[in-house]
Amino acid sequence: MEDIAITVKDLKIRYKSVQAYSIKKSLLRLKGAETQSFEAVRGISFEVKQGEILGITGKNGSGKSTMLRALANIFSADEGTIDLHGHSVSLLAIGVGFKKELTGRENIMLSGMLLGFTEEQVKEKMPEIIEFAGLGKFIDMPVRTYSSGMYSKLAFSITAILETEIMLIDEVLSVGDEKFKKKSYKKMKSLISNKDRTVVIVSHNLATLEDLCDRVLWMHEGKMMKIGDPHEVLEEYRQFMED
Fold first, then answer.
1. Which of 12, 136, 153, 226 has the fewest CB atoms within 10 Å, measured from its CB?
2. Domain ranges for the chain
3. Which whole-number Å values give the CA distances from 136 to 107, 129, 177, 205, in the listed order?
4. pLDDT tens readout for residues 27-64
5. 3-state DSSP: the chain helix, strand, coil percent, rounded to 5?
6. What is the pTM of this model?
7. Which of 105, 146, 97, 150 has the alpha carbon at shortest distance from 125?
8. What's the sign of the alpha-carbon dihedral 44, 49, 50, 55?
């Protein structure tokens, strides 16, 4: 029997939103705000085998990034369960995890330790991360001075060089200049060719999903529409989007 890396069972995640007109009232009274509950993930179940590459697609607002952040243990389940079977996990997503006032170098250390690596392990990999990111003198400047492209280069480099058993990737292969896109895509292909590494990629780029993934999960309005062979699922998704 093949080892399972990720088990998701009957997962539901809800957000609470406060109605705008009642915010002032609730601040004055500290209670009584009218809240609405929005279910972003609505009862999804699936498994990912160890070494498998699963793509997740769907239009904006379908719950893809919420699902990924739940797998990364950033969001907790309101109902259902997620089991990573003891595997280490890292999330590669723009805007996650950097302290804006710290330098790039300091953020490498912080990110590495948050991923569960020791200070010595991060220090050992630091030169390789810095070289791959190619940020030059900016590596010793606060991250708040970075462009979104520089930010993504650093985020990608940390996750690519500090290899975890499960990699979660959220739309970052499309950020950065052309040269870095090619470099990161090549690195990603080499990383996921390791049959012990499990990868979940969220993307709108259907060609990327078709090229990289073993299976694709299509989400729509928080529900799983279909999971299976990339070509079959993506063909059905394309037709759905055209209708």
1. 136
2. 4-242
3. 15, 12, 15, 30
4. 665 555 556 778 999 999 999 999 999 999 999 999 99
5. 45, 30, 30
6. 0.82
7. 105
8. negative
